[in-house]
Amino acid sequence: MGNTITLIIFGGALVAALGVALTVLAFKAPAPTDADLAVERLDAYSRVEPPLNLSAQEANLSFRERVLLPFLEQIARVIGRRTPEASMNQLQRTLMLAGRPLGLSPGEFIAVRYVVAGLGGLGGALLGLAVGGLTYALIGGAVFALISYLMPKLLLGSRVKRAQKEIRLSLPDAMDLMSVCVESGLTFEGAMTKVAERYSNRLGLEFAQVMSEIRLGRQRREAMANLGDRTGVDEVNSFAQAVIQSDALGTGIARVLRIQSEELRRKRRQRAQEQGAKASLKMLFPMVLFIFPALWIVLLGPAVLLLLKEF
Question: What's the total number of domains in the chain?
Fold first, then answer.
């Protein structure tokens, strides 16, 4: 009796286990075939979200990068096709010496001038219309447009002069450093690299550009000639021509650097003496305009008051 009950319990458990296994297999998803995988992939590609006006990357850009720069690029392409190549190359050198303000290319800089002139003319016309009438609006628009058109070029010229002055002042010390480095065993390129690492001003950037050109395969003569033409500084051009001549004749570069250092120091001393001689002449105009009238008022003021009291 006991064995019969045990067999019944064991058989019921086995039947229940078989039922559970059959139920799981019945509800299990079938293995995907190749056709099913193809259909699934086609469905994934066919589910295309509706396009947006701006992508997420464009939406994160600033108004300058999203609107102003593309607008200037369009104008720059039109101007670049109509401007002589020589003028564009000259403007490119000027922009490079000025440090590429706002990262503008030559065409974009010309486009900025036209856009600023248009905005200045519009502002001057509105101001003249508010002050007077149509005649004032025309005059104000023309004057403000002309001033706005010339202003970017004047600002660029001031930056170029400041960069040239910075190069001219730091060049003698750079020549001393290069001379010491070459005499201690470094090559000319190694000495120029030391100067580029030491000086973080415009001269260091120009020397770094020369080294980049040499590493890219350009000859030293061409790189130094480009340095003299690019900076527009007489002292740098003289130094570049001396290096080119030394490279062509095979003379020692250390002697050339020593001579250039002495020559640059002599020119800097002469320039300081010249500026000191001009100081007295420059002080004359403020004295005549501001100091002498006040002095005459202090000296002759009481006498004038007494004369007015008498008469």
Answer: 2
